[in-house]
Design goal:
The chain is α/β, with parallel strands linked by helices. It is built from 10 helices and 12 strands. A 6-stranded parallel beta sheet has the order 3-2-1-4-5-6, with helices on both faces. Strands 8-7-9-10-12-11 form a 6-stranded mixed beta sheet.
C-alpha cells in the first residue's frame, strides 16, 4: 500500500452518531503507517480524545475542504452543499447511481472539481457481495421500531440507545398479543437482522426472499399485520405495495417499516410515499381506515451507534489497508466513472432537445 492519508470528517446531520472508523481500528491503521486526521464532532459516539490517544491528529469540524489534495475524505452520509467543486477522493454512501433526488447535482460537483466518489454501497467482492455494510443493524432497529409502534410503545423523538436497552423494551410484556409479521429480503444482512429482532420480540416472522417475490402473493402479504422491507433493487421490479392495496378488504397490514428507504428511485418497491420519516416524527399515517402506518428512517443504525459503528469499522478497516485503484476499490471507481459518463450522455441529449 502506498502512503495513505485518511481524513475522517464530521457528519453534518445532527442525528448521525455513527463513525466508519472506530478508535481501536484507527490505532490499527496508524500502526500500519496510515496517517489519520479526525475532525471534531460533538455527536459522534466516540470522543475525539479516543482518536487522539490512538495516534490521530484532531482538527476542527469541516476543515476537510482545505485538506491536502492527496487526502482521502471518509464519511457516511451526505456532504454539505458547499463547496460546489469536490477535488478530493471521498468515501461515503453517495446514493447517486439510481437517479435518486440530488444524484446528478452531486456527480456534477465531482466532475467540476476533479475528485472521485468511492461509494461504500458499491465496495463489493468479486461476486458482488458488499464488503462493509450496516445492513444487519438497520434491519434489527427497523423491525424493533415497527414492533414497538404496533404495540403502542414507540415514543418520539427517538434517541440513540444500546442494544440491551432496546431489547428490554422489545421483549413482550404480559398481556401483549401475538401478531403476524413478514420480512421481505430475509436472507440478506438487513433481513437477518430484522428476523432476529422479531424473534426477540416474541414473534415468529414469515420470511420471504427472491423465490417468494418473483411470484408475489399479494394476498398473503396483505394478510400479515406487520411488514419489514429490506429489499434493495437495482432494476425494475413488481411493487410490493401500491395505493390500490390500501382499500383491499382483505388487508390486515397495519405497520410497514421500509428499511431500504429507496424513495425517489424509479426502482422503489414501495412507491406509496415520497418522503422519508425521521427521529422527530418516525411514523407517518398512509391510510386512515383501516389504519396503515409507515416507518421509513434512512439512518436506522445510528440509533445503535456503538454496535453499528464497531461492526462496520471491523469490516472496512481491512479494505482501507488495501486502498488503491485495484480490486474492490477499482470497482468502486469504475462505477463512479460509469455514472459520470451516463450523466454526461443524458445531459448531452437534453441539451439537443
Amino acid at each position: 500500500m502506498t502512503e495513505l492519508h485518511l481524513w475522517l470528517r464530521h457528519e453534518t446531520r445532527t442525528t448521525e452518531r455513527r463513525t466508519p472508523v472506530v478508535p481501536s481500528d484507527a490505532r490499527r491503521l496508524a500502526g500500519a503507517g496510515v496517517t489519520l486526521t479526525v475532525e471534531e464532532s460533538p455527536q459522534r459516539i466516540f470522543p475525539s480524545e479516543a482518536y487522539e490517544a490512538a495516534g490521530c491528529r484532531v482538527v476542527e469540524a469541516g476543515t476537510w475542504r482545505d485538506a491536502p489534495a492527496d487526502a482521502v475524505i471518509v464519511g457516511l452520509k451526505e456532504l454539505p452543499d458547499a463547496p460546489g467543486e469536490l477535488r478530493h477522493r471521498h468515501l461515503f454512501f453517495g446514493h447517486a447511481y439510481k437517479a435518486q433526488p440530488g444524484a446528478g447535482a452531486l456527480l456534477r460537483r465531482f466532475v467540476a472539481g476533479g475528485g472521485a466518489l468511492f461509494d461504500l454501497e458499491y465496495l463489493v467482492d468479486d461476486d458482488g457481495r458488499r464488503l462493509a455494510a450496516f445492513g444487519y443493524w438497520a434491519g434489527y432497529v427497523g423491525a424493533a421500531l415497527a414492533v414497538l409502534h404496533h404495540r403502542g410503545r414507540l415514543t418520539a423523538p427517538l434517541r440513540p440507545t444500546s442494544k440491551e436497552e432496546l431489547d428490554a423494551g422489545l421483549r413482550p410484556a404480559p398481556g401483549d398479543e401475538r401478531f403476524s409479521s413478514l420480512v421481505i429480503g430475509a436472507l440478506g444482512r438487513s433481513g437477518r437482522g430484522a428476523g432476529v429482532a422479531l424473534i426477540e420480540a416474541g414473534l415468529e416472522p414469515t420470511r420471504w426472499d427472491l423465490a417468494e417475490t418473483r411470484a408475489l402473493d399479494r394476498r398473503a402479504l396483505l394478510e400479515h399485520e406487520l411488514m419489514v422491507n429490506t429489499v434493495l433493487t437495482t432494476g425494475p421490479a413488481t411493487p410490493f405495495l401500491t395505493d390500490k392495496d390500501f382499500d383491499d378488504p382483505g388487508r390486515r397490514l397495519g405497520t410497514v417499516c421500509d428499511v431500504t428507504c429507496d424513495v425517489g428511485s424509479p426502482y422503489n418497491v414501495l412507491p406509496v410515499y415520497d418522503t422519508i420519516t425521521d427521529w422527530t416524527d418516525p411514523v407517518r399515517r398512509l391510510h386512515e381506515r383501516p389504519a396503515l402506518d409507515l416507518i421509513a428512517i434512512d439512518n436506522l443504525p445510528s440509533l445503535l451507534p456503538e454496535e453499528a459503528s464497531t461492526d462496520f469499522s471491523a469490516a472496512l478497516t481491512p479494505q482501507l489497508l488495501e486502498f488503491g485503484t485495484g480490486g474492490a476499490w477499482g470497482r468502486c471507481l469504475d462505477r463512479f466513472d460509469e455514472a459520470c459518463r451516463e450523466l454526461g450522455s443524458t445531459e448531452g441529449k437534453l441539451g439537443d432537445v
